[in-house]
Amino acid sequence: MFIRTFGWSFATTIAGLVAAGLIWGAQGFGVVLILAILEISLSFDNAVVNATVLKRMNPFWQKIFLTVGVLIAVFGMRLVFPLAVVGLTAQLSPSTVLDLALHADHTAGGLTYAQHLEAAGPAIAAFGGVFLLMIFLDFLLGEKDYHWLRPLERPLERIGQLKAATTVVALLTLVLTAHFLAGDHAETVLLAGVLGLATYLTVNGLSSLFESSLEGAEEAAEAAQQHAHQGGGATAVQLAGKAAFFLFLYLEVLDASFSFDGVVGAFAITDNLFQITLGLGIGALYIRSLTVFLVRKGTLDDYVYLEHGAHYAIGALAVILLVSIEYKIPELVTGLIGVTFIGAALASSVRRNRREAELEEALDREPVQLGRP
Residue 331: which of 241, 235, 267 has the closest Cα? Predict the structure, then answer.
């Protein structure tokens, strides 16, 4: 399963690094490799969260996630999207933006492409920060089957029973961020943050609207088999498809939010747009493969606190994005925080599984011990 899931990622990595070496030499090879590693380290928590959504999709949409989704992730989010952001924020024509991206020494309004993208940083950080914050808050304030940090999570679940609690907290956080951290960019930060909130509520709301379709897909399929001559099978496929489609959109926006800091931070390593796209694209492929691997291995069911760790890492990333509006946060810090939360959650899951195994073993021995004279 491991080779089947990651094989094409390995093959793409080899091809991409060979191409980088041939086109840009040893330096380009090293830059692309570093960027790929950077993307993987920053987005490991993204794979865990993706897996919680992907496991609810049927095999067809899981394949879509690995094919069409990869194209969107690599070319859409890591190539086209930054170009669009620069064009919108700097009010430049597509041809001008493309010229800036292809020629690192060209300027428009006195700024290079990398500088324009950096200038768009407050808007990018506000949009992505609020979107990720909503994911974290929905998990933290929502009901959970298991509690990792019980003293914190149980009281917050009660607060989450208030309608729109997550939206209120996110809006208050956005207002405080705009007031204390945005400075002259306060209006831009507020607008971008509201757009991030609206995007989350829209995409998540649409996926929730069809949630019942996914939950009832198996029952519909069984009914379709009994009434195949009435065309029930097509209805079951359509229902599952609608639900999976909006979940797919949700995953793509989530991936975009995770890619913001990587795309912006990549310009600290190189200003070559194609090196950035290739390096981050290779990293994105591994995140996709890891997501599918977690689903097919049932890792989230075996290690129940992994989902908690991933969401706490998302919350930390949301805070980092919002703080980065005013202060520069090294990418190493971002990556280490995510890995720390995931590692701690995995360790807690292993200890829990060991305790449960020991308890089950003790219960199995107990009748034998009681039967002794």
Answer: 267
Q: Would residue 373 count as lying in a domain?
A: no
Q: Give backbone dihedrals phi and psi of 108, rounded to 5 degrees, phi first.
A: -140, 120
Confidence bin at 216 (pLDDT 50/70/90): low
pTM, two decimal places: 0.79
237 vs 81: which has the higher pLDDT: 81
Contact indicator for 85, 124 with CB cutoff of 8 Å: yes
Phi, psi of 237 (to 5 degrees): -65, -40
End-to-end Cα, the chain, rounded Å: 51
CA distance 22 to 236: 50
The H-assigned helical ranges of 210-304 are 211-215, 217-226, 232-266, 273-297, 299-302
Q: How far apart are CA 284 and CA 261, in angstroms?
A: 13
**Residue 372 lies inside a defined structural domain of this protein:** no
Structure-token match 């897909």, residue found: 217
Q: Specify if 345 maps to a domain.
A: yes
Residues spanned by the domain of 359:
2-364
Nearest Cα to Cα of residue 323 among 198, 196, 189: 189
Count of domains observed in the chain: 1
Whether pLDDT at 152 is above 80: yes
Mean pLDDT of the chain: 82
Q: Does pLDDT of 41 surpass 80?
A: no
Residue 110 phi, psi dihedral angles, 5° rounding: 85, 5
Asked, for residue 255, whether it belongs to a domain, the answer is yes
